[in-house]
Amino acid sequence: MKENDKFPSPIITPATKAEMGDHDEDISREDIIKKGIVSEADYLVLEDYTRKLFQRGTEIAASRGLILVDTKYEFGKTKAGKIVLIDEIHTPDSSRYFYEEGYQDRQDKGEAQKQLSKEFVRQWLIANNFQGLEGQTVPFMSDEYIQTVSERYIELYEKIMGETFIKADVSNIHERIQKNVEAYLQSK
Questions:
Q1: Is 188 exposed, middle or buried (0-12, 13-18, 19+ CB in 10 A)?
Q2: Burial class of residue 180, CB neighbours in 10 A (0-12, 13-18, 19+)
Q3: CB burial class (10 A; 0-12, 13-18, 19+) of residue 82?
Q4: Structure letter (DSSP) for residue 97
Q5: CA 178, CA 142: separation in Å to the nearest integer?
């Protein structure tokens, strides 16, 4: 296999939150069960949910001319013991997508894949000497670069949702925040 080749079937690579910091830490299925993070029965449910979510995400992506390359799902457990999703899924922050059109040609030529994800932001940060390490300062992002990021996220939204993204009116952002907070508080 070479980089960006498709696996014969999806693989699951479990992770958990690290003891220190806010990053994910790879962990094996066996260690998850051995350490009592979840029971074997719960792990089987998590695996089943993961495969079904990935299959559905793959189908939706394919219907929009995209390939769902990889993604992460975060789960939790309610007080009643029910396993539930606890974070967003199939977004540019949790997933990578390649364009189906031209995928095989690019693979055959050993070219980089055209993708939609936050990876381009990560690469920009690394190129500007920032990896989120202690003591590092986030580099300045020009308005032009921020616009590029916004356009890429909008492109992904439109490809996945199959509809045009309508930008919100941000002429009075403080009023908008106030209105939304008040509406939320009234709903409680």
A1: exposed
A2: exposed
A3: exposed
A4: E
A5: 28
Per DSSP bridges, beta strands 15-17 and 24-26 are: antiparallel
User: Whats the size of the chain, residue-wise?
Assistant: 188
Which domains can be identified in the chain, with CATH numbers? 1-115 (3.30.470.20), 118-188 (no CATH)
49-84 pLDDT tens trace: 999 999 999 999 999 999 999 999 999 999 999 999
Q: Distance (Å, rounded) from C-alpha 21 to C-alpha 14?
A: 18
Residue 51: CB atoms within 10 A of its CB come to 13
The contacts of residue 97 (CB under 8 Å, 6+ apart) are: 61, 66, 67, 68, 69, 115, 116, 117, 156, 159, 160
- Which pLDDT tens digit goes with each residue over 164-182? 999 988 899 999 999 999 9
